[in-house]
Amino acid sequence: MMEKQKEKKGRGVSMKTKTIAIIPARGGSKGIIRKNLRFFNDRPLIYYAIQNALKSEKIEDVVVTTDSDEIIKYCNKFSVKIRKRPDHLGQDDVTLDPVIYDALVWFEDEHYRVDNVITLQPTSPLLTVETLNKAISEFEKSDLDTLISVEEDVYLGWKEENGNLVKDYEKRLNRQWLPKRYKETGAFLICRRSIINENSRIGPKIGVYKIPKVEAIDIDSEIDWYIAEKMDQRLKFLFVTSANDKIGTGHIYRCISLANHFIGHERNFIIFDTFEKGKKLLEENNYSYIEVEDVNRVEQYLDEYEIIINDFLDTSVDYMNILKDKFVINFEDLGEGADKANLVFNALYESSYPKENRRFGWRYVVLDDKILIKTPNSFNEQVKEILVTFGGVDQNNLTLKSLKVLENFNDIKVKIIIGPGYKYKTELDKFLETSTLDYTLLSEVKDMGKEMENIDLAITSNGRTVYELASMNIPTISISQNDRETMHLFSRYSKGVSYLGISCNVSDEQLYLTIKELIENRDKRYKMYKSFSQINLRKGVKTVKNEIINSFWRWKDERNSDW
Questions:
Q1: Where are the beta strands (DSSP E) in 36-181?
Q2: Whether residue 308 sits in one domain with residue 274
Q3: Which of 21, 221, 344, 535 has a 20 to 30 A CA-CA distance from 189?
Q4: pLDDT tens, 431-444?
């Protein structure tokens, strides 16, 4: 299949500054055999340099200089000029300067006199045409003779002098305090025609152009190749989520946890209906975000993304229609729009008749790294400390309800954790002033895993926290805050949870008797502990990650089957 051709340009086409790109491409690479024609992902390596040059509105003509008939044959499909270089310029010890000079002289003899020459090496396939155009523009506006692509490379260096290694720095400082250094890359070198000769492309006035680290990767070895291919496969994720005083911050927490496992990929956030605590969470985790008034406003930010992850309650059909032509993943979505998603992860729910795009159950729970890194608790013969936590909001003030019941139990420590949306703090403080409880009160905890260590029994809402407690092997009493939580079925079949039902139906006596039984009945509590220890919830985030990646590439391949 012929590649899309660029309209040929040449003498008489334009009176503007004439800039050509010269791409040197030997056939006899030693480090990686046939390097320039080896497939980098799904194209020969040289393809990317050619495409950058052809797509640039700053470049009039493109010249490939090579000693290889195979490379010539491949390049003939593009609108480029091809210089079969003389034999003496194809040797291993020949530098680029005479090769570029030869191609330039040949081009000018055949076509027209040029003003500027860009050396584009095939070994920088991640260079973008946008970066290239910006560099050319900067060069055109300057009085520089030569502009060289560089990457910022801060390090503590050593060098050899008289057979000895000596430090190449003045003071041994932390990385952030070291002076900036710039390392030349093979991406491009731009220079005036007037300073080029057989031995040099470097004029008196030299400048450097810093390019992004990813684009600066220069392939010289198989390790370089591997890294570059992986970086080229980076995906662009857009997380759409919310947090408020009704639903808490769980959606944002899960997005952050998942985003952390896609390190190396581009990850951006759009938030709506989100209070300050939710924004703060993203900022604390070094994620930038765009805030929109309404979720439908996401449409204007979609162009550069292929993967959209929605984590908020129940999508509509209208919203999902906005996301057409994107690969869409939804979490905990029971809305009408769920059918239009490519994948829906409902870890809190179960279904006997799952649809093709649905993934139900505990195997798909996404736990925070701060939980995953902790060692699950060992079993204690006696209940010494009880954790009371009802999420970020606790709409029914089950925290206070539980604490009043716990006053009936002596010699037990109580750890209380309240969230950013808890509205009953004044009432809680008043109770604690006269309470006989041996308690610790914590607010807006950043590391729940740490606070779950050494906990023997927990009382919590019937939501995601149950999974966190289960991963730490903590026998748990759960209560649903609302009708939706009654649909969270893990607590129903898990032998590690004593589920009491919806809050409006749970009496103080019922809660008291349940706590009493678990304190006094060591065997039952041990069975609950063992039940959790036999369920591996820690693989959930890896399972979800792999499912997303594999499903995306299958979707992409199907859409591009005509390639």
A1: 39-40, 43-44, 61-66, 81-84, 116-120, 146-152, 158-161, 164-167
A2: yes
A3: 221
A4: 999 999 999 999 98
